[in-house]
Amino acid sequence: MDELTIKIAGEAGQGMQTIGAALRRLFNKMGLYIFSSQDVMSRIRGGNNFFQLRISGRHLYTLREKSDIVVALDKPSVALHREKVSSEGILVLDRKKFNITDTGKAFFDVPFYDLANKIGSSELFVNSVALGVLGGITRIEFKYLDGILRSTFAAKNEEVIVKNIEAARAGYDFSRDNFKPDIFAIREGSAKENLMINGNEAIALGAIRAGCKFYSAYPMSPSTSIMNFMADYAKKFNIVVEQAEDEIAAINMIIGASYAGVRSMAATSGGGFALMVEGLSLAGMTETPIVVVDAQRPAPATGFPTRTEQADLDFLIHAGHGEFTRAIFAPGTAEEAFYLTVKAFNLAEKYQIPVLIMTDQHLAESYRDIEKFDLNKAKVKRYIISKEDSPKITDYKRYQLTESGVSPLAIPSWINGVIYADSDEHTEEGHITEDAQIRVKMVAKRFYKKMAGLSGEIEKPTSYNIEGAKILLIGFGSTYGVMKEVSDRMKEDKIGFIHLSQVWPFPAAEITSLLKDAKRIVTVENNAGGQLARLIRRETGVKIEKSILKFDGRPFDLDYLMRRVREVM
């Protein structure tokens, strides 16, 4: 097959993540390109969760609507997912265990639970049986499964490893003996064994590369894995990772750490960021460089805790009381997430501002194989007065008025004398003032001058197939992948796209230029209000004719967006 989509569905606790991670590594070793995602309910056990994996001999960027092979590990999954099986696909199930008498033509009956109990005397081994079944259906050599299972369970004792391999062998032999067609046979590909990574891991690696030495957060899906990743590497890279009591404490901690000279970051979701906005204004007033990640999920309030959305765009642009300069990045791929995180730290320190990274559950938790990062493209730049030069400083003014609006940034313990910082309006020295003329100068410094400098360093939008396009799609954040594949698949229909990886300062000149010859412009957004369409209108005067909006908590997939684009056509 040119490509294959596999779905494993069941209740939380049945090991879908274990199977999914094993399959990712398996196909990666076989030289295939991969895109995988998971759909989970916000509960520890029960409910219905699924893992979806798409593999191909060419680069992949998004999901498909239907799956070629669906493995149901519990009875509810049969009813929930049978309509999501492709026209030539199969649904693998245990009819005896699930007490299903229906003989659906796409059913492949496998005694998962009997095999698991026979081999391991426990239903816990059903996920390894399922892995073996998939290996047999796709005609993979068992040596690959053996190696992956040994690495997956390497931390377990030898008996557990052997039992899991035996369980997989039982599933493998059963499917080879009973599923005769070779329609799902997979051949080894020529792709390099690339880095397998999701958006959150890329952000964490970018922070480490940028020299982040203090990370504070309160756990909130889907941002929590950033904290876990940072904690895993904290000792190796001398990073302090602090789980704060709440998001208010988290942002104030990173402000304090940054004031002391340490590059600092926090991550949360929309509800947690709502608690951070007073701290965001504090960073704006005190001109303290910080980086904050908002991994979006559906809202208001708790919303869908484990789903995806892009509804915080307006919120992040306007968050915090008062007027001050900020930058907002919206990476569309793991690669952009890494490089833009490094840039976020550099810009935050250069302009002494908060920089926000806006991602979402889909990008945060979806895995894709990518080439290793080029560290030459991720240069770390520091903008503080060096330890050697600090003792030479006399008459230091923390908020010195300059042409650029950026004052010299010193570390308190390195220079002679006292540094004053205050959340009230202040003089160049940092003393509280109510002088109207000083107020005007300080607002101009923090807002006009810094914004002017920052606007010269905007990350330019990506454009693709826009020459002669009949329809020009435009989006931000995680919609990059699905827009790219739609553009590639619908070449004859002349579909092009523009993607914004920076939404503030808004690249108005670039967008105006790219849109000037567009026949029809359509935004693609995971929100209900068409926030990007409104932003484009505000900043450029260009009225967007149509918006394709999706706000059910699920991401766009290739088939859904192609169908919606055809409706527009």
Q: Strand-residue fraction?
A: 15-25%
Q: Architecture of the largest domain, according to CATH?
A: 3-Layer(aba) Sandwich
Shape: globular
Supply the number of structural domains: 4
How would a textbook summarize the main sheet? 8 strands, mixed
Characterize the quaternary organization of these chains: single chain
User: Count the helices. How many?
Assistant: 20
Q: First CA to last CA: what distance?
A: 30 Å
Describe this structure in words.
With 569 residues, this protein is α/β, with parallel strands linked by helices. The protein has 4 domains: 3-178, Pyruvate-ferredoxin Oxidoreductase, domain 3 (3-Layer(aba) Sandwich); 196-377, Rossmann fold, CATH 3.40.50.970; 384-457, no CATH class; 462-568, Rossmann fold. Helices cover 39% and strands 20% of the residues. It is built from 20 helices and 20 strands. It has an 8-stranded mixed β-sheet with strand order 6-5-4-1-3-2-14-7, sandwiched between helices. Strands 9-8-10-11-13-12-18 form a 7-stranded mixed β-sheet, with helices on both faces. Helix 4 (112-120) packs across helix 5 and helix 5 (126-137) crosses helix 7. The longest helix is centred in the N-terminal third of the chain and has 21 residues, at 158-178. It is globular and about 85 Å long. The mean pLDDT is 95.
